[in-house]
Structure formats: C-alpha cells, structure tokens
C-alpha cells in the first residue's frame, strides 16, 4: 500500500478553502474545549409549548446533518448521540463575524451552539442561535443522500460513517453499553467479583476451538490468544474467590458468519457451592434485567417485518436433551444404527466418530434451529462434556444446559467437574473423531494441580455478549452489534480454494 498522501478531490479542496477562511477570521477550525453543553434529549423538553414563548438559553455540541435557506434565515438540522434538533439563525441575532462564519460551514461539521430554545411559527422546536462555535471542520463529503447510505462493506470499514448517517446504528451500539452495564449491575447485586485473567495462554484450553498462535520473543515460546476464560477463573475459585466473573474478549481462529466473529466478547461466571440449576436462575436474572435496561416490556420485536416477537418473561421452560432428540429424530439416542442412518441422510460423516459425537451433530441438524425459546436444553451426553460433573444417578448424563433463543445458542453452563483424577483422565483421552487442534480435552497440568488443592463444587456459566445484544436489539448479524467486526484487508483478494 502506498504511503503517498492522496490528493484532495474538488469537495475536499472546497472545504480546505473554508478552513483557511475560518483561520483568517482568527478562529480555530478544529475547536477547543467546550464546557457545559447539554445533551439534545435533555434540551428538547425545555422548549415552551406555546409558539412565541421564550425558553431558557441552552448550549449544545452537535454535527450538522442538514441545512436550508429562507430569505435572511438559515436553518440547520443537527444531531448528537442523544437526538436531533433544528437551529434557526437570523442575521439580526448574530454579529457580522458570526454570520460570516455560517457561510463557512458544511454538512458534517461539528459546532457548538448557544441560544434560547423556542418554537418556530410552524411549531418546530428550535434553538435560536446567538453564538456559534466551530468545534471541528469536516473535510469529508457526506455519503450521497446520507440517510440512505447502503454500501455495507464501506459502512463496516468506515463504521464512523455508519454511526453518523444511518439511523438506529448509534442507538443500537449505545444499547449494547446499557446491556453490558446491566449485566455487571446484576452480578454486583449478587456479590460477584469481577476479575481480569490473561489473554495470552501457554495452553489453549477451556473450549473446543482452534486458537490463534503468536510468539513471545523474549521467552522464545509459542503462546495462544485465549479461546475461553474458564480455567483461570476456576483457579481463582480454588484460591477462595467464591463468586467470580469476567467479561472479556475471546479469540477463535474459525469462520465468519451471521453469528460468529473470530474476536468476540463473552462473560464467564462461576459460583462456588452452586450447580447448573443455580446458573439457570442466574441466567434468567441477567437476561431479564438486561431487557428491562433497554425496554419497557419483556416482549421484544424480532425480524425485519416486526411481526415476530421474543417473550423473555421468566421462568423459561427446561427441556431434556434426550426428549428433544427423540421428538425430532423419532428414535432414542442409544439406538446407534438408527442415529447413523439419520446422520447419513443428512450428509453427516459418521466414520471414526464417537456415537455421542454423531448424536450431537444430528441434534444440531434437527433440533437447534427449531428452538424458538427462550428455552433451557438440559442434561447432555456426558462424553461430549469433559469439564462437566455427571449426574449421580446416571454417569452417562452431564449436568449441563444450553440456552437457545430463535435457534441461536446464547448461554452454556455446567455443574463444574472438580474431581482432579477424573479431570486428568479426560484431558488425556481425546474424543474419537475430533482433531487435536479442535479438541477441548487439552492437558493443562497446572489446572489439574489446582484441582488437587481443592475446588469447591460449583456452577459455571458462559454467555455470548454479542449474541445477547443481537437478540435484544433485533439484529440479524453479529457484525451489526460489534463496532469493528473483522474484515478482509481493503483491496485484498478472497482466498482461493488452494489457499484454504
């Protein structure tokens, strides 16, 4: 990529001329500190109901989104992170320099405004500008017909354009912050401690995923970006932190689609002396509190037409994995021959695979997409859950649940395994049919050593934060709820089949 600066086009040249004009007026085109400005959403209610009545003098900082002339009047539409409002500028209310400054403004500029708030003759809530301050001159021409900017790849690469010019995008991302804050409040209210654990791991463990590999020069060792938060948080439980969680970035060197991004945010939570039922109750509390943080109702819209809804009202149903499998497949999980026939009919490879791995792939094919939820799927085959405690009355069943909403897995939880000898055996025994790089059964000697010190019986829970935000904001792609999703470098060709 060339390091030579791009030459400005005619639009940028015109704006650079206005930058010079502002400087010649003795003003800073890129602004200075601007204290005590108010959010637009707080300013609008201050406007009197009656036309002609004076409201208070207000101060805002906002971006110019539209403008028009009417004789000696100038009207600007501006917005900040909280809303929009109209500005009315009259030559009689402004100094000569201020009026001249108006002519140096363009769409996209950031400005500060001081003046009373009133209604115009048509009843429009407006700030009648008395003082104008340039806060940042924009050199970029807004997208043509900015409210219809639809070049998806451009918007993802230049997310700042998407946030400014597409209605709803900034609101959705601010809702994300409210949701995450709500999660923390819920956990704080139940006396959980937030922890920060390493991102660079010597062993990629805690999940079934392919890691990103990097190299530490000083130690001359390979390290892995974490694929899960689990094993370090459990070490903290051993050390006496009985209720602990982390909201963190996790990295998996895998595909990209509507519900997967290689870099994503998740929360993992562990409670000593609890179990997977404890975690079900906690999951309901976390999600329902998050819904309340952004909505006045527990029934949220879903889908482009808004006709579908998701009712998050608790309690949510709890359905056994085996029962759902039987209903969908028409046979028992233990009927290996029948399960293999179904798998083959669905194009699922069966050769060399553990029977429970085949069962789970059939379950994913037949059941998961049809789980509208919210619904807890409970009691999974133990052989596919190597970090999970077994049921006392049936060691073939693991005390695990997954929460599904609209066919999407939102949460995964266990009654945690704390038997060091059994854990060591499971680390040593790879599941049949799984590649070494994708298996979650990785030997972590220090973790086994920690379990030998003694980890209390516990419940553990993981929730995908990005997916939670998707469901609560009616977003169909994970790219819509991540500020900067991973994209191929600009101008780079797609990988060929040979490269893949």
Structure keywords:
500 residues, alpha+beta, elongated, nine-stranded mixed sheet, 2 domains, five-stranded mixed beta barrel, BirA Bifunctional Protein, domain 2, 26% strand
Task: Describe, in plain words, how this protein is organized in 3D.
By secondary structure, the chain is α+β, with helices and mostly antiparallel strands. The protein has two domains: 10-142, Nucleic acid-binding proteins (OB fold (Dihydrolipoamide Acetyltransferase, E2P), Beta Barrel); 169-317 and 373-480, BirA Bifunctional Protein, domain 2. The chain contains 14 helices and 20 strands. The protein has helices at residues 10-24, 40-43, 96-102, 152-157, 159-165, 169-189, 230-238, 276-294, 321-329, 336-345, 355-366, 420-428, 445-454, 465-472, and strands spanning 57-70, 73-80, 83-90, 110-119, 125-128, 131-136, 193-194, 200-201, 213-216, 221-225, 243-251, 263-272, 299-302, 308-311, 318-320, 375-381, 390-391, 394-405, 408-415, 458-464. The strands form four sheets. Strands 7, 11, 12, 15, 16, 17, 18, 19 and 20 form a nine-stranded mixed sheet that branches. A hairpin with a 2-residue loop joins strand 17 (390-391) and strand 18. Helix 10 crosses helix 11 (355-366) and helix 12 (420-428) packs antiparallel against helix 13 (445-454). The chain is elongated, with a radius of gyration of 29 Å.
